[in-house]
Amino acid sequence: MRTVATGSRPAGAPVDVLPRPAPTAETKSKEQNFAATTAAEQKYELKPNLGPSVLKLRSPQSFLHALQEWEGYVTSIGDQTFTARLIDKTAKSHIEEETAEFLLDDVSDSDRRLLREGSIFRWVIGYLKDAGGSKRRVSEIVFRRLPAWTRHDLLSARARATEITKGLAWEE
Amino acid sequence: MIVDSCLSPGGKRPAALEYLESIGVAPTQVVLIVVTHWHDDHIRGLATIVRECTSARVCLSSAFRNEEFNNFVLAFGSRRIKTSSLTLGADEMGDVLEQLLSSGRRPVMCLGSRRLLNQKTLPNGPLCEIWSLSPSDAQLSKALGSIAKQIPGLLEAKRRAPDPDHNDLSIAAWVSFGESALLLGADLEEPGPLDLGWSAVINDRERPQGRAALFKISHHGSRNGHHDLVWKDMLISDAVAVLTPYNKNVGLPTESDVQRITTLTSRAFSTSKLLPNRFRRSRSNAVQKTVDETVVRITSAQPRSGHVRVRFRPPDGTIEIAMDATACRLRNVLP
What we know:
The complex is a heterodimer. Chain A is an alpha+beta fold.
């Protein structure tokens, strides 16, 4: 948790959550170049895959341009990894085409409680772009927060199961 | 007879129906459909087969007589989970049950040593018998007990149906015609106790006797699906053996599986090779690089679809084997 510096300050003034470092000649030059060319993109590549928990801090002005998306379900959970079957949603597939093993550490703390065999998630790879034009390649795993089984779900399944079981006449 | 179902490489139509139509057999000529178990890779397109093969008797595990089991299947269907791409197995089985109910067709119960068919296939041809060899009573009880624990509870977060343990309800089948026989192993495994898995089959005195010339190897050739006495007591020497490879967590068959099987028979085949590629489709450089940075391991889950055709020629049952371009000898299955 970040702490905000306390103490008196003029009303309405913005609060620096983190103190800004003093600008160097290099950063001044970059900022000038960037401001001068609105269509310019930062040329240096930022390190991708900072983890899903970091990605959730994206600003409202950023958006994810997905290159590849899978829907997956967990098939087994180990001490440090979990395995899942993946369906390629980008290719509009309906069958599991890949099996992958992921690190448990790559699952956000808030999603950990959703992780069990059969849990369903989305895995998206793409570019996170912000309004300033910068972009970075990211990988995001988000577990589906499917609704819970309701009383209606369970009772209707049970009722239909009873009808089918009683209705099927088996050969003797 | 059709045993289980998968989709053709185009993904539109059950492969079994496409093949039969290619050799001039209409779906209405199919007399028996055996659903060995309801893993996704064994039942894709099954509802279509049941619907089109209107003359076929449908053989199901006796588990489907159990209300709790049917409740499990229906609870995990897309009608209640609303994520249809991941509820395939449950949905296919649910559709099959609904079709049988609405059409009034009477399913045939499969248990150990139960004869499913006894008829001449051609007017002057040999008598054909088809038997289910499993599940045993003990296997059924164990599976139903396990299923009961997995029924979802109220307010539990929805998820995909868990895969069955140990292929508990898998139906192995014996087909004999005249002097020839074949053993279809489905995904039956050998967990150890004498009243379960392959041990239960071997020890069943009521099962049909004889030795099969063709073995559809169970559970993708895995060690779990192997029993020495199957090869020793139920198969002829150097029987023709066919398996389908599979990629779940570990590719099957493994190198040791291939070694084991090829020492038991020189005539072992696979419907396709295990893929060396990690991906089923080509991916962009950016995606491949990110995948490498994210996952511990990724493998293609679906080997290419191929087939091995085995024909028994009258009058002496000489065996002819043909493979399409995707199939291979088992010794060449590994990448």
